[in-house]
């Protein structure tokens, strides 16, 4: 793979002719089929992955195991019916829905001066994406946010798509009887319904408790939702830096990251050709894309924070909104009076956006233009439906700095800004820390819910200790699982390279899998309906020594299979009742099976002789349980589908 410097120097290499999709990102998942669940109109087709399972071996009962449907973030890349060409971009999902609302117009030209300048620059021809879309904007006076429609009582196709997606065929699973055991969970006051309906999605968006990041200029997007009463989501960060990476590598990180489960992706590029890199990313992204516009604005003023102006920033917002960015991180809560509160911190201000704004504020001795122009920013957001991700510019970057006055002062300001954004019907989530020891995490969640009127929280980790550089996906995965359980709606991943360097494609996968684990562990602990289905199926496959099913039901089948095969590569080992951990004589699950077989034989003999025995099965308890299940299912027959 070429780096940026190399690809710039090769005059013959024209990206719009040569770029190729990453081959690994378009492989089908093993034993999986891409299926689409239909909505109320033909063009609402909700993707899911269906994993088919082997029958249970006859010595375990010989039953058929129903296929398991899982949430699918991999998009058209794993759809055999779609011919992927990254030079053309992805198929259109939403344009007809957007047009049908009749409140937007296609523009004859881009509204951003910077965009027009880039398009006119002949020197950029070799980097340009050839199939840019004509920009769309709200008609004069119109507000095109999902929150605005929700508050008017309108259920959009996006909302219906999301309801089907979040339910993940839970209803079908219940009918098949595969969800016969799930722990109730403890959701700390979240209000997760038994079934997600389009009307529930609308209500949550209307009251600001959930957001649907979906810019009208990003019609390739498969709608998803971020909110405490929905499945916990994860974000993966990508993007170049001054010291490395190319457009192709970044598109590769995008497709690789969403393959493994990224629900949204942030392009945090700060290096060369930020505009062109983003164009390639968005046109090839079926997930929402977030950015931090102040990074590119700083690039435009040569990296001198004091030289930033509202005009440059405003043009950058419009430039990015017309490309299709779905959410903007805006560090508008960094107020002058909070900056001195960071003076005694161990690591000061670790947020890039936060440090840039702190510098500007001190240099001008004024509140930042992000704060003073906040309502002007709202006006731009609602003309394209870009969501706010209010940045935590003063988050702690060290365990010692957690939950300090600067951090919590900023959070209070973010609460005030949330209310202003909501006045404009602009969708809003709030960014959170950072480096926080476990016992101080819950206070972050509780304060955020209180200050920000339950707007979704979106946290970086948190990292629960500072002592493991090289393993910060783990130090932060621990905190992410905890805060997800407490009610955080989206977990921003941290890769093993955190604090050390720019993550590559492998780091992206490592970070995503770690965060899928954290998010799912949180869903389970919250008692999210249906969350335990996949666990139950995997545990059953494990106990029945269905090795292929155990691999295929996992988050990373490739690694699971490779680890198993490292010591027992032969095909015959795939039916063995042991693995190389304990070997055939010490396999506890095998011995359990022998205990059960033995007990069965004993019980039969005792029944004949009339002798009293300790039995494996409490017959009366079984009957009571069956009666309870029957009552429960009976109630569900009348549940509206
Ligand atoms: C806010 C967080 O964003 C991440 N971050 C910042 N820039 C990039 C990039 N180009 N690629 C991936 N992650 C990035 C870091 O992990 C940081 O902690
Ligand atoms: C969860 C999350 N992700 C990304 C950023 C942006 O980075 P920065 O604040 O360093 O500019 C952030 N503040 N919070
Ligand atoms: S990750 Fe590296 S460049 Fe970024 S703040 Fe830390 S030390 Fe500085
Ligand atoms: Zn850090």
From TrEMBL:
- Gene3D superfamilies assigned to the protein according to its UniProt record, in alphabetical order: 6.10.250.620, Radical SAM ThiC family, central domain (3.20.20.540)
UniProt: substrate binding residues? 237, 266, 295, 331, 351-353, 392-395, 431, 458
Q: Which GO terms describe its biological process?
A: thiamine biosynthetic process; thiamine diphosphate biosynthetic process
The ThiC-associated domain sits at 28-105
Annotated Gene Ontology cellular components are: cytosol
Q: Which residues bind Zn(2+)?
A: 435, 499
Q: Which UniProt keywords apply?
A: 4Fe-4S, Iron, Iron-sulfur, Lyase, Metal-binding, S-adenosyl-L-methionine, Thiamine biosynthesis, Zinc
GO molecular function annotation: 4 iron, 4 sulfur cluster binding; phosphomethylpyrimidine synthase activity; zinc ion binding
Q: Which reaction does it catalyse?
A: 5-amino-1-(5-phospho-beta-D-ribosyl)imidazole + S-adenosyl-L-methionine = 4-amino-2-methyl-5-(phosphooxymethyl)pyrimidine + CO + 5'-deoxyadenosine + formate + L-methionine + 3 H(+)
Under which pathway is this protein filed? Cofactor biosynthesis; thiamine diphosphate biosynthesis
Q: Where does this protein hold [4Fe-4S] cluster?
A: 579, 582, 587
Q: Identify its protein family.
A: Belongs to the ThiC family.
**PANTHER family the record matches:** PHOSPHOMETHYLPYRIMIDINE SYNTHASE, CHLOROPLASTIC, THIAMINE BIOSYNTHESIS PROTEIN THIC
What name does UniProt use for this protein?
Answer: Phosphomethylpyrimidine synthase
**Organism field:** Exilibacterium tricleocarpae
